[in-house]
Amino acid sequence: MLQTHGLSCLRDAQPLFEPVAFTLVPGQLLLIEGENGVGKTTLLRALLGLAPLNVDSLAFDGLPWPGCLSQIRRRARWLGHAAALKPELTVAENWRFWAALEEFPLANADVLVFGERLKLQGFEDARVGTLSAGQKKRAQLARLLFGAAKLWLLDEPFANLDRAGIALIEALVETFLQAGGAIIATSHGVLSFARPHSTLVLHPALQGAYDFE
Amino acid sequence: MNSAFIASFRRELTLRIRQPAAALYPAAFAVLVALLIGFAVGANSSALSLIAPAALFIAMLLAVFLALEQMFAGDVSDGTLDALVCADHAMLGVLYGKALGFWLSSCATLLLALPVLMVLLKLPADLAPLICLSLTLASLSLSFLGLAGAALTARLNAQEGAGAGGAMLLLLLILPQAVPVLIFALGAVQAAVVGESPKSALYFLASLSIIYVTLAPFAARLALRAS
After folding, report:
1. Are the Cβ atoms of B15 and A86 closer than 8 angstroms?
2. B175-B178-B184-B190 Cα dihedral, nearest 10 degrees
3. pLDDT > 70 in chain B, percent
4. CB-based contact (8 Å) between A88 and chain B?
5. Any CB–CB contact under 8 A between A82 and chain B?
6. Terminal alpha carbon distance of chain A
7. Residue A83 sits at the chain B interface (C-beta within 8 Å)
8. What is the pLDDT of residues A84-129, one digit of tens each?
């Protein structure tokens, strides 16, 4: 699904981490580890064209970078630290907006199904601003399930979640991988997935080792 | 794209209704500007009747610009903008819905303030329908123009240390573009004041609106993609 080598992210025209290479196949979970500030989040953002990317070669479904960017954006779902939920709107209103963008029908009954699936029963009509951090995270998960995604990019998926929440994510991940999806997730390495996965460790780039001028 | 437009339009209006205070600030601001001009010129002077239409439209224009900053406010810090950029296929619909929702809410509150403004500036009441029409068209242009400007400066506001630089830059970028809108919106009213037909100015104003409504969302999409 995704092959790349010589991939690095830039900050102020300096590479953040040593160039990495990886291949992602359907059904695979790739965990990106590394110390704070090494560029884990930036790597996920860069794959979506939200941060500068420096790459020798990258192919998504056989299409070369950067032509494949629109295809990646179309088929990938990104879950970052910011929830992309409006605090003034209710959970259901937020869901309906993101579902409409994917032309995903979300009737009232479907909202209840999502509420049950994400263990948010009874909170569908609560304003997001009144939810706890963990509940917000659960509400955010719904965005992964709208439309036909084949790649999930999860930034610290376990942050703010309790045991039940972690089990919930693991169940969602399992289902998605079984269905042929692929996942890239970041982690500080404290909490990790119980299921088998491959790991990619980022190492800070040596300063001055590269010259991009 | 259609469902994205409807969803975005509805969301924008819901957001405004949930924050009624923020929606009313621009109208209050316009009233204050008119009040200041009234005091500065002197209510009894004949000068006020000469500049009243101009003062009214400048107050309205500044109020719309004040509100523009809210267009993408919060969208950067809460991650909405990133998610939107990734939903590129639906972005145009979202932007159209956003600008139309913004126009409807800001124009509606300004029209609510219009009677107060007209009394403050001693404008004859029989001009009210024309001013309403002219203001509606002008604010439509300014909303879409502002969409493009706000898209360009959206991320500047969120950058640490930038302070209010983005808001200032937005004003500097958009104000010059608003000059033709101001000229024709005001031209229609002033033509009526001296007893001429306001039609030609209104036609120009309407065609400006069509241009901005058609093109601005595309410019805004480009700006958001590049930021």
Report:
1. yes
2. -30
3. 95
4. yes
5. yes
6. 32
7. yes
8. 888 888 888 998 899 888 888 888 888 888 888 888 888 888 888 8
